[in-house]
Amino acid sequence: MTLNLADLPADVQEQVATTRRVVSDLHAELPRWELVVWTAGNVSQRIRVADRIGEDLFVIKPSGVSYDDLGPEKMVVCTLDGKKILDGTPDSLQPSSDTAAHAYVYTHMDTIGGVVHTHSTYATAWASRGEEVPCVLTMMADEFGGPIPIGPFALIGDDSIGRGIVETLKDSRSRAVLMQNHGPFTIGSDGRDAVKAAVMVEEVARTVHIARQLGDVIPIPQEKIDSLFDRYQNVYGQPKK
Amino acid sequence: MTLNLADLPADVQEQVATTRRVVSDLHAELPRWELVVWTAGNVSQRIRVADRIGEDLFVIKPSGVSYDDLGPEKMVVCTLDGKKILDGTPDSLQPSSDTAAHAYVYTHMDTIGGVVHTHSTYATAWASRGEEVPCVLTMMADEFGGPIPIGPFALIGDDSIGRGIVETLKDSRSRAVLMQNHGPFTIGSDGRDAVKAAVMVEEVARTVHIARQLGDVIPIPQEKIDSLFDRYQNVYGQPKK
Amino acid sequence: MTLNLADLPADVQEQVATTRRVVSDLHAELPRWELVVWTAGNVSQRIRVADRIGEDLFVIKPSGVSYDDLGPEKMVVCTLDGKKILDGTPDSLQPSSDTAAHAYVYTHMDTIGGVVHTHSTYATAWASRGEEVPCVLTMMADEFGGPIPIGPFALIGDDSIGRGIVETLKDSRSRAVLMQNHGPFTIGSDGRDAVKAAVMVEEVARTVHIARQLGDVIPIPQEKIDSLFDRYQNVYGQPKK
Amino acid sequence: MTLNLADLPADVQEQVATTRRVVSDLHAELPRWELVVWTAGNVSQRIRVADRIGEDLFVIKPSGVSYDDLGPEKMVVCTLDGKKILDGTPDSLQPSSDTAAHAYVYTHMDTIGGVVHTHSTYATAWASRGEEVPCVLTMMADEFGGPIPIGPFALIGDDSIGRGIVETLKDSRSRAVLMQNHGPFTIGSDGRDAVKAAVMVEEVARTVHIARQLGDVIPIPQEKIDSLFDRYQNVYGQPKK
Fold first, then answer.
1. pTM value?
2. Any idea which architecture A5-234 has in CATH?
3. Fewest CB within 10 A of the end CB: N or C in chain C?
């Protein structure tokens, strides 16, 4: 089935428009936190409309477009099989070359509402050694509840990247996986949460790298990690409304 | 006792308003000097009003709020037992999850008027090895009068972080402590002085780290450190008015 | 033959004016991506007008001028023998001291439309060890199709730098060469493509450096590199119009 | 003799005003190139007025003032014995605590018109190991004509820093010295030239540091260094008017 934006119910079109703005704004966070260069990296967010049109959608960055040139109208809307839906303009953009990986995550992880991919430097460095980042910082215990795991080497072009992400993260507290020789993918409850995980995974990858350069780091006992993770997930921040 | 902002004397309310502006502005220094990412880090400043209302107050960052969204009205006012005082609005924000540590410092160190906490990268790297930063730079002798000490591993949730800070710093010239596996806390005569210490501790942690990567650093003899510290504390800058 | 801008056909003058704007704008990318300090670095772009005036031209940065002070009118127009063409103003600027190297590339590589030179930190570090950057990242396979090669040590002042670039790159997939003890030169289909290669070569030099600091990196098998390079060159980005 | 600004001849007052603007503007380059944090670092420039008033003057940063708060009117005018000259305002600022070192350089090196001091990270790291930066980059041969030398450990408070700078640089091609455990001082024909040297010494200190982290660097033969230095000093940039 090929979906066309103009054929969707008005309230779904409204949700699409809102999500395009959100995802466009979130892309500005990637260069801001120095997670990407040139056109690399991408953010997506799920639109939960299965009850309205029979399937969810998601919004993602177009392929190879500069961060300077992004905007809500450039964001590509896709179905969960990774096909873009038409918006009535003849020159509508092609979605990110990583779209299939994002689609696979949404299809196989129901609770996930946002996915981010970057080649951020320190996280990618750990990935190219195939070495997980050990949990030796309280902020890492807070945010990820343990080490940052390594995913398999996988080529673009089929579902092997998406499968590698899902298989690595499905039984993990971590919202970040370092795909071997490639770079980090992060997941979250929505796009913003996945962007936060992308910022934090680079931060902890960098800090632990620097710590390790001059000697051994002190491990945090597992029960302390558990205690920090539990508290941060339930107490930190403002009360949810 | 639960304090309410509207019940305070007018001149104390004035001091609270001024301090909220100061502390809000000081928070902008943390991302500016790249000491924090996302919502991490916090600055507080004491309000010396014990002679007016029987106890001092302090102002601190709200928990989990982005640096982009801060402003004087978002700053939380607390008593020295770490409880926020009510400001009459139903949606007033919750204070930083590190509030108990700040409160402990103010309660146990009378001369301290400002406290800052970050996870700045190089300082946190030394902290995760549990290794003090040796005093091998004249700017470090100037500012800290010796090495930057390590504080104990301590979990959030009771007064163990505050106690670790106070016990490490109470007999030290250093205004910075690196809490093991966690990150730096700095203290000062006011919020700005503690922010300066936070900037400088990262700077010296970074420079000494880089120096050590390629070989041994040259120690500065203790009497030279003493001479530099004494001069800087008494001669540097403009005359106090 | 000494060319004078005023003597060129009107349509060629138009192409010159457009290219000066493009090259001036591209120079802003070098400080933006932190590839240069002070006045170092330069971008050039070929103007394909051999069918109109018997030879191609190219536009390049003036020598020793600050990036703050650049603009289209400051860009120098040269013939392919590296001589600037006169523009009728007595104070017209002298071209970059690297002009001969750019000219040599255009003369000996017909398909190349842009050249960039920087002293970007990590690429120059590999260059000063005379060590090629191994291909251990998928983004490096995508962009460069293999390792970043080292070019010979060559002094400025004759065609030895240009010759070193061309001999190293003519049979390579890489659009970047690290000239020993000197720094990277990159080539591309136009100025923008060469700037992209300059950004990416620093990014991969930096990431692989950091990866190698803590241990061995995992090589990517040659057939996977081939597959990634082929796909990226043909599928990534928006369809060419 | 105590000089008073109001008592100087009108043309000298004019030169003072111009130099204060120049030196104020040059200070903005230090944070821009990330050579300083907080209030650290300083630039000075000589005013050649010995033929008018019997001695030269120089302009320097006030002590302990934030870079945000600088401006021409904040710049302090000094005689070559390092005493500030009065400007008629009761609250005129005290000059940098490094003023004596700047004054010593101007007094003992007639051709020097500008001096800069920073604690830039990589240069200070080499300084704290007491290890000169070897000349393994063509840009370093261009700019400094050889290695960056180390100066003695010297305390602030008498002329020992100034003496260390002059004794290290007087027979060197280098315009930069790394004072042991302290940081770089650079000199130049004017303030801008000394600022350029401060930017370049950090750049080469950083690049050679990074190169050395992963192995041995390739030395550049002395006659090639001589050739590069000679050419750069005489050919690079636009013709002097």
1. 0.96
2. 3-Layer(aba) Sandwich (3.40)
3. C
